[in-house]
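Quarterly update from the structural biology core.
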Amino acid sequence: MGKNTAFFAGPSDDAALIAVIAEFGYHIVPPITTVSRPYPPRDPSRHPFSYLSLVEESKLHPYGNPSVKISHAVDPLLTLMRSCEKDGALVAGQLLWTDDNKDRASQTKPIFSVISKWIKSHWLLRDSDGYFIGPEANKMESSGVPLLYVPAGVTVKKLEH
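Predicted structure, tokenized:
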């Protein structure tokens, strides 16, 4: 079982979140070490999927052939999907903590708790869906920008049990 904090963040909300992550001493790293630099990109729509790490990227343990992939199965990482603007809409982001690996989970749970607590104390909780919304994202929605849970054109398949 894991935990997540889902949110909508406008550009200045995203910048504030990235600054807070750095302020707490955590690192945002790409899932593949060959991603262009600087990282994280200012425009989250370029690479919305990232990891949050206790250590800088050079101290992680890439795997694969060639060794360029990074995973929470190998290193203590949280998943960070950054909220971003795409095709005139604002797409949701989320911070995800998993406890699949008990050793890694005990290392990453404090990171999740600190960042999630910051989001919950600085952004509004939407009653309609339980997502948090940053101040700029809230203004964007009020001005007519649609909020999407997934990017337009992405098909979400229902799992059959």
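The radius of gyration is 16 Å.
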